[in-house]
Design goal:
Length: 166
Amino acid sequence: MTERKIVIDTLQLNYQGLFNMNELYLIIDKWFREKGYDKYEKKNFEHVYKDGKQIEIEMEPWKKNTDYSKSIIKTNILVTNLKEVVIKKDKFTVKTNQGKILITFMGFLETDYEGRWESKAWVYFLRTLFDQYIYRIHTDKFEGYVAEDVNHLYNTIKAYLNLQKY
């Protein structure tokens, strides 16, 4: 059975104000591509209400570390009260969005994702010993990579949202 270890649990980013939703999505997508993650988008909904749109996006991109382990960054994006706004920037008028954003990050390290070590009970026992004593150094290293990637994505999005001055 695949074991999923939580490395980063519920790191949240809140923002309210002006931003461009398309640019935000492209920044996240580009970051995953640059870091070598395969994109897996579980959910992408858009609800239209009288006071604005609500967008829900759930992504679980993954990156294969070895044949035994892979890194997963679960990203939930919830945008509420999203409205299109026209503002004046310098001498130009710019279309942008206004609303509230809540982004939740979780980082996982998944081991034996192909299920090779669970065919028989004694093989599963060997896997447990292997994980505890032999492969522990590599597992700790990969956990560090997951934590580093989640924090880097968090800081990249935070920098984008805080640098947008209108």
